[in-house]
Predict the structure.
Amino acid sequence: MNITVFCSAHRLDRKYTVPAAEFARLLGEGGHTLVWGGSRAGLMGQLADGVKAAGGRLVGISVEFLQHKVYKGADVLVMTPDLAARKAELLAHGDALVVLAGGLGTLDEVTEVLELKKHGMHDKPVVLLDTDGFYAGLRLQLERMDAEGFLPRPLAELVSFARTPAEVFARLTADRN
């Protein structure tokens, strides 16, 4: 499976890097391909290193203005002219989407793929790894939107939340059956 991952390009605390390393190991050992933002920086670089070390394949999707931060060991590297094209390529290359801890860029990416899924533009599973309750606020907001009728599809059809990397893969497997 090609798994697109959205996450931070910043160095983060161990409470985020340890679960990300476990996720990378499971992805690589499972024979999957990591599709990610193509950066060597922060959590993105650590994730790519972990997948590669575990025998996985790497497809980086970067953007021209971040060319100086690209991961040199990717099996495939796609350069895009801007962030909008990058998001489209990240979505197109993945069979599933996983969201790890991240900042505004990650939030932008996950909300766009949920909006596209809401409109039926894709039906790929989207799973957020809610490390240390990082996405509790987003989950609460999405649940309110669902409860108050702002979503045309039930929230459970759009996204799921996982507490551990193993649970992420369990959800991805369940969504494919």
